[in-house]
């Protein structure tokens, strides 16, 4: 491990950084993927025809907010050496709003929508900021494996939160409850795992950046963003990665957001079936993130990402054809392997193309790309199901187009040229 880290970085600090992936993964796993999304559609919205679209539209609102605020918060964090400060407030916001979902019972649509918007906004800001620490921790030729360590450990966190939630839900009947009545407490479990894991991050992770001189926080943050806009042509490969990320993350966000709904609506999975499926998929995602982290550094980050995107296309084909649970399980686990590896690879590639003193800003812009994707993908899926009277198979097939588009854009990325640009706008032209 030591050979992969920058000088002065201790192993416990990398572990503390990875613990944030551990902490926040429970939110995406339990709230967005496995439990609360299906609960929102079937119980809170009572299975209305507009329910799936309402869920995707709610997430879209939160992602639009991240697209507006994310780059500015990142530029502020870079200028004022405030990554931990911004991360702290984002974490507190997500933990509290997730816990308040405990009160979102049948018919509490407005409460559920409000808390999802707040919690998902805070989660996304936290994800952007924690990623900005990566170039400070890892050497350039080890960004893939270190990113993979964090992302794979994140899936362990998702497994812990989901496992605890599954045990609580499966014990509902023995307590004289219906399964739906047990969902509320899983939100408290998720919030508790988030808070406990993130506390380790804040204790041991250091803020290495130095604050830049500035008159006011807002003015300097805007100035940094304007500078990036002027120098955009010098970071052409990073911009291509942003475009590629928008394409493939649209597909990934669709799978993450709607997997439980697809399993229940198309494959007739029960809530317990879905939770078990997501648990196992998290294991394969953990393996994919860890293994592909090493592969990225061995064969190149671009090539490794291309392999995972091809895997996503194959997954969509399997899911579209699946009429038996066996084939659907194959598709789901292929999605797990590709999910962990593609998201870890994307983070590593952005870190590879980002100057250390502007990492939070550039990851804020990466957040714009991925959150735009999170608007386009699930909204497209939701709109297709609405227009076609809940034809989830067609919606899944259309999702595959996003991965094909990502492959086309990725082919234009030059990994060596993108790394040269890190030295400065003029270096890229040499």
Characterization of this structure:
This protein is mainly alpha-helical. 57% of the residues are buried. Helix content is 77%, strand content 0%. The chain starts with 10 loop residues before the first helix and ends in a 10-residue tail after the last helix. Helix 1 (11-34) packs antiparallel against helix 5, helix 2 (36-44) packs antiparallel against helix 3 and helix 11 packs across helix 13. It has helices at residues 11-34, 36-44, 51-79, 83-100, 109-131, 134-137, 143-170, 183-204, 217-230, 236-265, 271-299, 301-321, 325-352, 359-387, 392-410, 415-420. It contains 16 helices and no strands. The chain has one domain (11-207, 218-422): MFS general substrate transporter like domains (Growth Hormone, Chain: A, Up-down Bundle).
In CATH, what is the class? Mainly Alpha
| Annotated CATH topology | Growth Hormone, Chain: A
**How many structural domains in the coordinates?**
1
Number of helices: 16
Largest sheet entry: none
The percentage helix is over 70%
* Mean pLDDT reading: 85
Low-pLDDT runs? 426-430
**In the CATH hierarchy, what is the architecture at level 2?**
Up-down Bundle
């Amino acid at each position: 491990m030591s050979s992969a880290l920058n000088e002065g970085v201790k192993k416990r600090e990398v572990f503390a950084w990875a613990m944030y992936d551990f902490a926040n993964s429970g939110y995406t796993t339990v709230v967005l993927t496995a439990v609360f999304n299906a609960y929102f559609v079937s119980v809170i919205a009572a299975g209305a025809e507009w329910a799936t679209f309402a869920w995707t539209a709610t997430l879209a609102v939160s992602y639009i907010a991240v697209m507006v605020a994310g780059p500015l918060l990142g530029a502020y964090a870079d200028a004022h050496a405030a990554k931990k400060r911004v991360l702290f407030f984002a974490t507190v916001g997500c933990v509290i709003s997730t816990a308040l979902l405990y009160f979102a019972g049948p018919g509490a649509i407005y409460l559920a929508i409000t808390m999802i918007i707040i919690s998902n906004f805070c989660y996304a800001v936290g994800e952007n900021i924690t990623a900005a620490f990566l170039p400070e921790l890892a050497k350039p030729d080890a960004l893939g494996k270190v990113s993979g360590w964090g992302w794979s450990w994140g899936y362990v966190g998702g497994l812990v939160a989901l496992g605890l939630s599954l045990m609580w839900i499966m014990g509902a009947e023995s307590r004289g409850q219906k399964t739906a009545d047990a969902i509320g407490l899983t939100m408290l479990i998720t919030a508790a795992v988030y808070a406990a894991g993130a506390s380790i991050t804040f204790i041991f992770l250091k803020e290495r950046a130095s604050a830049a001189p500035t008159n006011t926080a807002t003015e300097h943050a805007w100035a940094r963003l304007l500078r990036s806009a002027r120098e955009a042509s010098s970071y052409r490969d990073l911009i291509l990665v942003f475009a590629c990320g928008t394409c493939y993350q649209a597909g990934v966000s669709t799978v993450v957001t709607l997997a439980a709904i697809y399993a229940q609506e198309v494959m007739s999975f029960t809530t317990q079936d879905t939770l078990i499926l997501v648990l196992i998929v998290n294991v394969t995602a953990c393996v994919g993130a860890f293994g592909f982290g090493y592969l990225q550094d061995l064969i190149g980050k671009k090539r490794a990402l291309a392999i995972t995107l091809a895997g996503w296309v194959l997954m969509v084909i399997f899911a579209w054809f699946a009429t038996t649970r066996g084939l659907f399980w194959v598709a789901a686990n292929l999605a797990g392997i590709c999910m962990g590896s593609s998201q870890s690879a994307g983070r590593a590639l952005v870190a590879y193309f980002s100057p250390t003193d502007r990492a939070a800003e550039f990851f804020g812009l990466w957040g714009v790309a991925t959150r735009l994707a999170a608007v386009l993908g699930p909204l497209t899926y939701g709109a297709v199901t609405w227009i076609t009277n809940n034809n989830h198979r067609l919606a899944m097939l259309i999702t595959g187009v996003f991965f094909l588009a990502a492959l086309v854009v990725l082919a234009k990325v030059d990994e060596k040229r993108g790394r040269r640009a890190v030295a400065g706008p003029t270096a890229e032209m040499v």
